[in-house]
Write a structure and sequence with these properties.
Four copies of one chain form a homotetramer. By secondary structure, the first copy, chain A, is mainly α. Chain A folds into two domains: 53 residues, Orthogonal Bundle (Arc Repressor Mutant, subunit A), CATH 1.10.10.60; 175 residues, Tetracycline Repressor, domain 2, CATH 1.10.357. Chain A contains eleven helices and no strands. In chain A, α1 packs across α4. The radius of gyration of chain A is 20 Å and the shape is globular. Chains in contact: A-B, C-D. The interface between A and B is large, with 41 and 44 residues. The structure holds a DNA duplex.
DNA sequence: CATGAATGAGGTTTCATTCAT
DNA sequence: TATGAATGAAACCTCATTCAT
């Protein structure tokens, strides 16, 4: 009995090793340019072994992306569960996302691939459904937070929380993607720091969904933080 | 001399024919799935001939995308030039973008590819710079509009107009992309109509950049329009 | 000591089980198309276990073929040993071969593989020599029969009995192979029943090796049998 | 118009070059052991180019075999058309086949593959039908010859000429195959020269299909030839 | 210019065979 | 002995791109 479990665990570990090797290659080369040969070499395995665990390059890509997604969602989850203040929770989620962008920005590119329908068609049903349920959990958490916010009169009640969640997440993600791709270009051409623009965008969107009272709380929070940063 | 010009014109026509054929194929299949063979067949030319006019598949894809971009920008330009009211201009631009989405939504996918740095690396310098300057004109127009808005106290002055433009355009485009890809999924799973969410997002973003006074004007406009629609 | 013997017997039994499973798969799919996975599944064993007992797919194939060969040779042996009349023996051997073809025709394909030198190169020395000695016994028996026939003036004496044996067996086997492969084609295209052609071929070859006197005996035998068949 | 024809011819030439390269490789290694890479290298072409002209390794193999078949059939055709004496024609065909065996024996292996139904399943419809019609011509020629022989009372009339043709060709081919594979073995073990056995088999089969009168003519022919050989 | 043919590259797939446990 | 996993090899297949005419 224990043997079967151990085997199971080892299989998982092997899969994780492959995903980790694939991550390195995909981060460096992107989906199209990366080859299964490169990934096999990075994993120190044969190409056939990769196909033993993942039915296609796209599936493997999705598995890598899901790793990033889970990491990010994990942080969100933690904040949502432990931060009693909705305003603070939103703020900390922004911080977490920014931190994620700073340290693992390549995932952002990957996330943007995930929603392309073109891409989804090439992925196995199993992976797609795994991915879908993961996403679902994520949306549920954010929507839940916003619903609580509405109840607490923190979030405006004239917009459907689900729609709000979509707008919130879409706005944030898309600006990150742009920041990842065009940061240098905007700096060079118009002296714009997209990192700062991301903050601006966040603030605008959060402002837009808060009730007037909560907006004051949010501004106070930003102010306090700003002061704290400048003190250190 | 006239002969050279005629040749030039014919060459342009041939390029346009190729782009039009490529558009049909890319619309149906997407960048990765579409093949040069299919495009050649659609254009009733040989594959090699495509390469006489475009150095790579990506270049051709970009050429198609640029066609859509120019069409959309043309409409924006016209509104910006002829609509004296900033608020009305923003509103009409939203309408134009929504109309564009309704009729040529496949371009939205393409636009999202354009900003991927992975993609840009595979494109010829010439095409890239053409694309960049086209984009530049576009940004200039929007930023110009917002600057005028700041001067007229229509647009809030505490956010850099360039940043605002980026946020505005990025938010709008990203929701369109999501609507293109996930419309059915959201309808099915949570009974969300992403078309409506797009409107919500627009309204939220525009609200967020207007001064309080202008916001009233905007709401009046929406109200009037709403009434007009329900009358007909 | 008894334990070792039991082990030995069990090992043999296991080998036989594998050969039987392999037989089913090879009969259905042929050497090239059949896979070790399929055989392993049919044997309810892992692929690796097959390799504990047989060093290669070809060896296993040969083991299966040898089973058929032994069965057929056994019948021949029995006839040769117990049938005093050479003419009757030849006739009964033909009958036995035809019966074998009717009930286990798939072996005929396998036999034809055996003689391909390409094939032999891929087989273990041990298996090859087992196979060779089996074959040797077979040839020895037929040649012995023919030699006896020569002594009894049943078989013509101007052709070497060994050559005769080769011709006899080769002709018979090759027509069977053709019948196995092309039966339907000949029926369809030229309304030829290769089963009947096999009989024709046998008769021609036997006719060709008998002395004139024996030929009459053979014809009488055929005639008697023909009458018996038509009576029933 | 001439251009199209020239292109056509060049395409044929290229195909022939590939077939010739493949022939060398298949002769050396056999169907299973030979790889498309080796053939590509031998042809000094890329593997992809091979697949441009032949849809599979099996098709290419068949094309090679067909080359040999056509060569052999050509010689038969020539004899059948120009040799007025049926007996002489049969004899010269045997000589031609023996000569073919001496100089291009590897084809014999290939021919034996052709009739395996296993093999045929892996071949394109086009190639299969080309092959079938080639074979048909061949059978038609031999059957025609035998029919003429029956009319001229050279060939016995109590066996269907088609069946006779099958027996004749099958016997001859199968002994050649055995000679190709087992020549050394028989020489070593029983001091049998299969080359001579082939002659024996031919003589037996031809004897078996001739009328008594023709058989005398045939023996005279063999005798004359034997004398001629021993004189030189 | 236009094109048919060629090609290098790499993804996908399948397998016989081997290895570590 | 038995096995799950790994693997090297190669067929198969598709394409973007290039070349020779």
């Amino acid at each position: 009995m224990g043997i079967i479990e151990r085997k199971e665990r080892e299989k998982e570990r092997r899969k994780d090793e492959i995903v980790e090797a694939a991550r390195r290659v995909f981060f460096e080369k992107g989906l199209v340019t990366a080859t299964m040969d490169e990934i096999a070499e990075a994993a120190e395995l044969s190409k056939a072994t990769l196909y033993l665990h993942f039915p296609s390059k796209e599936d493997l890509y999705l598995a890598v992306a899901m790793g990033g997604l889970r990491a990010l969602h994990g942080k969100f989850q933690e904040i949502i569960e432990h931060e009693p203040s909705i305003v603070r929770a939103l703020h900390r989620m922004k911080e977490a996302y920014m931190e994620f962008f700073r340290t693992q920005r390549q995932y952002v590119q990957m996330f943007s691939f995930l929603q392309m329908s073109q891409f989804h068609k090439q992925v196995s049903d199993h992976m797609r459904s795994t991915c879908d349920s993961e996403n679902d959990k994520h949306w549920e958490a954010i929507i839940g937070l916003l619903r609580r916010g509405v109840e607490q009169k923190i979030i405006r009640d004239d917009i459907d929380p689900t729609e709000m969640a979509i707008v919130l997440w879409t706005n944030a993600s898309s600006l990150m993607l742009r920041a990842d791709n065009e940061h240098d270009m905007w700096k060079r051409r118009r002296n714009i720091d997209l990192r700062k623009t991301m903050e601006t965008s966040f603030r605008m969107t959060i402002d837009a969904i808060l009730t007037p009272a909560a907006r004051l709380e949010y501004q106070a929070l930003l102010h306090a933080e700003h002061a704290a940063v400048h003190q250190s």
